[in-house]
Amino acid sequence: MLDTVTNTFALIGTIIFIGFLSEELYRKTKIPSVLILVLLGLMIGPITGYSDPQQLIEMTPIFAPIALMFILFEGGLNMNLFKILKSSPRALIFGVLNVVLSIFVCGILFNLIFGVDLMVGAIFGAIAAGTSAAMIEGMKIREGVYNFISIEAVANDILCIVLTISLVIGYTTGDNDLFKVGGTILSQFLVGTMFGLIAAVFWMKVLKKTRAKPFSYMIALATLFVVYSIADKFNGNGAIAVLVFGLILSNGLQIFEFFKIKQNKYFYDETLKKTHNEFSFFIRTFFYVYLGMIAGISNINIILIGIVITVLLFIIRALSTIVCTFKTTLFKNAAFIAAIGSKDLASVVLAQIPYAYGIENTNMFSELILVIVITSIFFSTVLVGAMTIRNSKK
After folding, report:
1. Deepest in the core among 41, 67, 269, 310, taking most CB within 10 A?
2. CA 123 to chain centre
3. Helix, strand, or coil here: 388?
């Protein structure tokens, strides 16, 4: 028993240490940390058999909601609503178009290849539509292009999470009445939004008193778990409650100014965001390793289908880029924007949700997402590298 505990502690420390080193390696060489962490997971799980993937899969209903909670809260904290609405509405349209086309294409593709329900394919389309803006960090690109990609990535993740949860809920109800299913989804979202607003208002009132005291982030973290669970208990959507909580916290001053409400008693502490980023690093590191541990590729067909889906997703992104940047100053950077199509943690986490809800024919989602994540990173790296070399020769 003691040896097991010691080995587990050593493994946890090693994973965190490798996660840190992989981030540093990425900053210097642009080799994505995702690849290193997934490879580590494969070594721990399927390759060496050190851990039992089945035992880990059984823990997915706990791991996945926690990871989603952190992703959505971080997305809320990092999203400046007023900046988006004023300067980058096209980025939102771009994100929506990407997701909608991905859902449509994957729905048909899964029905043709696997013979599954169109809705199951649509769920995967929502999962796989997410994108990451991590690749552009540190790049010397125009501010407008940087903002466009960054805003689209944040909005895209949030939209993918919301739509995936909606489609899963709609599918699991087993009701063919679209109005009834839509009413159920809308009800859950409204309840989740209400509890998110209540939690944010409560937190605004206590933030002035707690911001200078130790453990203020722990109180915020406790609030996240409580608001998620309460919203869920009242048949609401806990994920939406957390998202709204983060959005109101980060945009509180602007919201007060917009509605001409006195805001002298509201203080948003930036250390909250910094501390949350530390926790997000921890969650992100472990979930990529976790994906490698549970998602050993079962056959070559999964790899081939994953590559085909990745190619289709890049084509969709290219078409969406042309539509949304046409006749704008961004159009001359359309090829670069289209090339930033690598997937991130949101897709990895969301791939676990349908199986956790007991939806049939979704056990392959983790394997497909593993292939898509790796392939999309490779495609983006090669495409951006080729553009960089071409531009340097001009």
Report:
1. 41
2. 15
3. helix
